[in-house]
Amino acid sequence: MIVAETTAKRTVPAAVDRNATNEGSSATITAMQILLSIPSLWRVGLLCGLLAGYAAPALAVDPEPDVAIADQGQHLVVNLPQTRVYLYQDGLLLRTYPIAVGKQLTQTPTGNYSITGIYRDPTWHIPKSIQDEMVKQGKPLQTEIPPGPDNPLGKVFIRFGEPRLGLGFHGTNQPASVPGVRSHGCVRLRNENALALADWVNVGALVTIAYQPLVLNEDEAGELWLTAYRDVYGMKDPSYRYLANTLLSWQQEKGRVLHGARVDRAIRERKGVPVCLSCKDAEKAVVTGSLMAKRWLSIDSGGVPEDAESVRPAGGHFSPKFPRSMPSVS
After folding, report:
1. What is the rounded distance in angstroms from the CA atom of residue 228 to the CA atom of residue 115?
2. Confidence of residue 9 (pLDDT cuts 50, 70, 90)
């Protein structure tokens, strides 16, 4: 079923910088080719949606991490090494945005959360830990920054998790910092993307923060692709121990050969560019259609975890003392 948002206030985010980190990872596809590639019933729904002025699901061109996506409702997925956020509606990928995530010393905590508040033109209540940083760096000590061009939260703060965690998606007064690994724990977006996200998302939407430096995908021609990202938090690739068995099982199931040297090279170089493991000529390989997640890490999850607020400890850089109604961390 084609998902189209019908309320006046909630619209699918505008297409912004969808291929920012994946140049050369997909073929150029015309609108007619897209329509012809979709099964007839879906094609009718897509055309009806477009004629009605509704937005249709976006085709995935970014490598999707392996996360169990909710079949119903909104689900936001962040893969920290990938510095991307994925927006799903009723199990369908709508959009991805580039993001900046927490630094090594102020990591964005992995886990499952929900959206708990949306605040436009927020005041930033500066945590004590960041006030201490200001003093050490010789900057003027501030306890809060009002809305405006100097506010690190940008034009909107979208809180996820319990207020005491101080976590959220938000805009920025430094757009050049996105994408990257440089925040104090929150997920930073460019202002136009943060505002589009705020227009679309509802309080209660699921949020999953994942840590997957290795991403496996299949394209619509059945080719297997591996994308290796930097291990930004030095976690030694927690998924690495599953990779060999997954690739061996794929070979046996498909009756096709995978090129082990390409696996080694991708992991060694970690360029964040999809590498075709099954194609005859990796240098000339082009993604056919979209890159869909290969289920190899979420196969035992049985869907979205029941505990929507299960997170690992956030660390000492979050401040629990600020009012529950206002954001505290950038």
Report:
1. 29
2. very low
